[in-house]
Specification:
Blueprint lengths: L1 H30 L18 E14 H11 L3 E6 L7 E12 L3 E5 L2 E18 L1 H15 L1 H7 L7 E15 L2 E2 L5 E2 L2 E7 L3 E4 L2 E4 H26 L2 H13 L1 E5 L8 E12 L3 E2 L3 E15 L14 E2 L6 E11 H12 L3 E2 L7 E13 L2 E12 L7 E15 L4 E9 L1 H10 L1 H4 L2 H11 L2 E2 L1 H14 L10 E17 L3 E16 L6
Protein name: DUF4403 family protein
InterPro entries: DUF4403
Organism: Nitrobacter winogradskyi (strain ATCC 25391 / DSM 10237 / CIP 104748 / NCIMB 11846 / Nb-255)
């Protein structure tokens, strides 16, 4: 009877002890901190202003058909003039007049030369009378044929009026080899050649060669017009005027849309140098390549950059059009915390449950320190060897160095290692919990990544906003601009912001739709 009482007492004591133990464990869980115990880190200096070199090189295509149409409008359709008397000993009071009309102009291009040609048709009209010597010669000829008496009866021959006509056929070929000068002017380098078919005109027995008589005066008329045209093109400030307008349009501060909680940022464009290449001419276009080198930087307030227009144009070898613009992608660490926490919060390691303890991540925080990032994790560890399942919460700290993965467009961590302070925390959780550490480190190396694709997409939109003005087609030109690729070039951070520099590459092309009057 007494021994039974003792046994019941022992069981009751064990029960009370067990309940007290479990209550103590729950009390410890309840009383233990539920937030991340963040270490004190030295504040990093703020990120410096970003100043990148950007360039925009634009091939401006002028279709040969456009040049042909402009020449068609400008060139006169009809020509007329007078030629000198080539046979004064035969003709007197001679009037040698010519008229010519041109046909449609055609344009061809090859070997960096532009040719414009047009057919010519017209007529030469000669009027006048025979000279005294010519009349005596005619009278003597009649006396020899008819006899002297008859010639006396005919009397002195007096031919007062002569009228003869001949046809003009040929063409005019104008060749231009334009060159660009450093003073923003174009030298057209125009030469012309008049070609006439071999036709002859007989006047009172005198044979006149039409090309030799008419070509010099047509040459003179054509060359006079070309000289005027060349000087007009050399003096034309159209290229400089358009460049000044585009230069002033580029020189500005463009507001950028940024993540919530970040200060309003602006992209400052400051053109500093104008470049160009000599014109290239092929079978379809005259291509004038012109470009701008600019400094781009991010500022926290709108600026008014000073961009003096360059007096000279830097001439460089011919190149294809290109667009290179660098912009930063700024991400606050509060956003990075959300990204990393979404990948780990609620996850238990080892994930297959094969370890002696389960370590569950409850919260994650990322902070910058030196050239590394410190990932702080609030974890709950529970050992599985004993029936009691001892465990608790602790904050562990893991170091990692951020690097860019260009191919995947992500930021991942390398050189991951457990901070010294975390070893003590794992010691409090027990040796069994330490067996989960390699799994956790491996998971961080594999999964602690920041997917930059959404940010890259945002950067594309920012750059697209920068070149939006180039994509606006005006009445005079059709402009196309596109971004072909976006590279992530570098990474930097301070205590609050992680910055990735994105460099966009693309192309801009311009095709003129109208030309000013020649």
């Amino acid at each position: 009877m007494r021994s039974g009482f003792k046994f019941k007492t022992i069981l009751l004591g064990i029960g009370i002890l067990a309940v007290s133990f479990f209550v103590s464990l729950k009390a410890m869980d309840w009383l233990s901190p539920h937030g991340i115990d963040k270490p004190a880190l030295a504040a990093l200096p703020p990120l410096p202003p970003v100043n990148r070199s950007s360039s925009i090189v634009v091939p401006v295509k002028i279709p040969l058909t456009l040049i042909r149409d402009a020449a068609e409008r400008a060139a006169p359709h009809h020509f007329a003039g007078k030629a000198d008397n080539p046979a004064a000993q035969i003709l007197q009071n001679a009037d040698i007049g010519w008229t010519a009309s041109r046909g449609a102009i055609s344009a061809t291009g090859a070997n960096n030369a532009l040719s414009l040609s047009t057919p010519l048709t017209g007529a030469v009209k000669v009027t006048g009378s025979l000279s005294a010597n010519a009349q005596d010669a005619v009278g003597n000829a009649l006396a020899g044929v008819l006899g002297g008496d008859i010639a006396k009866h005919v009397g002195r021959v007096n031919i007062k009026n002569l009228n003869a006509n001949a046809e003009i056929k040929g063409n005019v070929v104008m060749t231009a080899q334009p060159t660009l000068a450093g003073n923003w002017r174009i030298d057209p380098g125009i030469t012309a050649q008049v070609n006439l078919g071999d036709t002859n005109l007989s006047v009172a027995g005198a044979r006149l060669n039409v090309p030799s008589q008419v070509k010099p005066v047509i040459d003179k008329a054509v060359n006079e017009q070309i000289a005027v045209l060349q000087q007009r093109i050399r003096d034309d400030p159209a290229l400089e005027r358009d460049a000044r307008r585009q230069w002033a349009q580029m020189c500005r501060s463009i507001p950028l849309q940024d993540p919530a909680g970040m200060p309003q940022l602006h992209l400052e464009l400051k053109p500093v140098r104008a470049i160009a290449a000599q014109p290239r001419i092929d079978a379809r276009n005259v291509t004038l390549t012109i470009g701008v080198e600019a400094e781009t930087r991010i500022t926290t307030a709108a600026t008014r950059p000073d961009c003096p227009f360059p007096a000279t144009l830097a001439l460089e070898p011919a190149t294809t059009g290109r667009l290179n613009i660098g912009v930063p992608i700024d991400m606050p660490f509060t956003d990075i915390n959300k990204i990393i926490e979404a990948q780990f919060a609620g996850k238990t390691f080892p994930e297959d449950g094969s370890g002696a303890a389960d370590v569950t991540v409850k919260q994650v925080s990322v902070a910058a320190a030196g050239d590394q990032l410190l990932i702080s994790l609030l974890v709950h560890a529970k050992e599985k060897k004993s029936w009691f399942g001892f465990g608790g919460e602790a904050t562990i700290h893991i170091w990692g160095r951020p690097v860019l993965d260009q191919a995947q467009q992500i930021m991942r961590l390398k050189d991951i290692r457990l901070a010294v302070e975390s070893e003590a925390a794992f010691g409090l959780l027990g040796a069994a919990a330490q067996t989960a550490l390699p799994y956790l480190e491996s998971a961080l190396a594999e999964r602690a990544v920041v997917d930059l694709k959404p940010f890259v997409s945002d950067a594309r939109e920012k750059i697209a906003a920068v070149i939006a003005d180039f994509q606006k087609s005006e009445d005079r030109a059709k402009v196309t601009a596109e971004i072909s690729r976006l590279n992530l070039s570098s990474i930097a951070f301070d205590s609050t912001t992680l910055r990735v520099i994105a460099e966009a590459a693309g192309s801009v092309n311009v095709e003129l739709k109208t030309l000013p009057a020649l």
